[in-house]
Amino acid sequence: MVELKAKSALGGQSAVQIGAVRLQEVEGSKLSAIAPFAGVDAKLSEAMELAYGFGFPEPGQVLQKGQARCVWFGHRQALLIAATPDETLAELALITDQSDAWCSVSAVGAAAEDVLARLCPVDLHLRAFPVGHTARCPLGHINVSLTRVAADGFEIMAFRSMAASLWHEVTAAAELVAARAALP
Known about the structure:
The chain is 21% helix and 35% strand. A six-stranded antiparallel β-sheet has the order 1-2-8-11-10-9. The chain folds into two domains: 16-28 and 101-182, Probable tRNA modification gtpase trme, domain 1 (Gyrase A, domain 2), CATH 3.30.1360.120; 31-97. By secondary structure, it is α+β, with helices and mostly antiparallel strands. It has helices at residues 41-52, 112-117, 163-182; strands at 16-18, 21-25, 31-36, 62-65, 68-74, 77-81, 93-97, 102-108, 134-139, 142-150, 153-159. A hairpin with a 2-residue loop joins β4 (62-65) and β5 (68-74).
């Protein structure tokens, strides 16, 4: 009998510190896409409030209570992270397990904003893109979900098939930012 072993999207890539940014694969969260049926947005938000303590996010918004969070993921779509979908939601929305479909990388540190600014056409200054905000945008040539999780930290999500490209883009940009900072 064949024994299958689970692998992360980046195959166990070790975290790296490049200059003033730490890059690390984020593993293991349950991910569920939620797309409300027509005309039930308010009911879905109420059901989510009862189940998780937060409703359906507005565009660009991240809602969180404890470890569970819900990230706006596009027009009338959200991604529920680190929580099992409540069975009452199935009457109000299409729900699909996305746990193995995405890879996630965190970029944390004083240079995180500068690194990502080289790759994304989004104003990432804290005043324009505060903690709890998210955007779907290109990162280099990869379509990603970019979320600010701390004043100096971001989570970047891309399709699992793009994991190696995502890692390459972000580490290359981090090396350029670190090299520039090292100039006299």
